[in-house]
Amino acid sequence: MKEVKKAVFPIAGLGTRFLPATKAAPKEMLPVVDKPLIQYAVEEAYSAGIRHMIFVTGRTKRSVEDHFDTAYELENELELAGKNMLLDVARSITPGDMTCTYVRQSRAMGLGHAVLCAKELVGQEPFAVLLADDLMIGEPSIIAQMVKQFAEKQASILAVQDVPREHTMRYGIVSGQNVAPNLVDVSGIIEKPMPDVAPTTLGVAGRYVLTPGIFSELENMPSGVGGEIQLTDGIARLMQREKVFAYRYAGVRYDCGSKLGFLQATVDLGERHAKIGNEFSTWLRQRDAH
User: Fold this and answer.
1) Domain ranges of the chain
2) For residue 174, what pLDDT is reported?
3) Hey, which bits of 37-146 come out as E strands?
4) 6-252: which CATH topology?
5) 242-267 residue pLDDT tens
6) Distance from C-alpha of 82 to C-alpha of 78, rounded to nearest angstrom
7) d(CA 290, CA 287)
């Protein structure tokens, strides 16, 4: 029985949709209320029992490494000032039992290539992939739900959701047979089909649990459109040798790669915030009343 102990975070993208905010700051460090997007994803993986976090970075992502590093000067200042609650917050970013490793993706060659960059660090183990652009909230966490499914099936699991047919060109779309509540035995997967040819409206969201078999498929796969190696194409090839399942997760997904999704996440999580949520909700109601 293999367990999922490692998570890969592909974060080498340039975040051009958020210019000028991302000209000098990684999009993964954009804060939703009081935490950057990448921290939400790492906390999600940690809640699933994953302790080794692997970041596939690019040349402009040093601040992500700094965020998960120990800030001795900050911690010392907070300790001397007696600001113990803030000290606990600073230290909680990287728990003592969590390992962070970084590998560079030297060229933007697609999500499949980014995952392939983590091959040597993952080794022959199953692993999770979390896209920080997709802020996903569930109880238990989305990746924890998927790790549970993997424990039962010992096969790759893709997070999926029903999407409007007019939006199929934004997603990888899967087809297959229902084998359990919320679980589909995948027989086909196609990247961003037009609505009139999409086989279903079941779209892949930004969470995966994959077997190490995906690496040989990505290594031996020709480049697709734009010279990129697509993860969806690798999964399609993997399906010829292994079972792949799609899991309808229980929770909410915010597409924080778009400005609208980012704003929606900010408002919703702002209202749920333990300290300011009630006050923020009151302000929203008062504003709407005017």
Assistant:
1) 6-252, 258-290
2) 93
3) 52-57, 99-104, 127-130, 134-137
4) Spore Coat Polysaccharide Biosynthesis Protein SpsA; Chain A (3.90.550)
5) 999 999 999 999 999 999 999 999 99
6) 6
7) 5
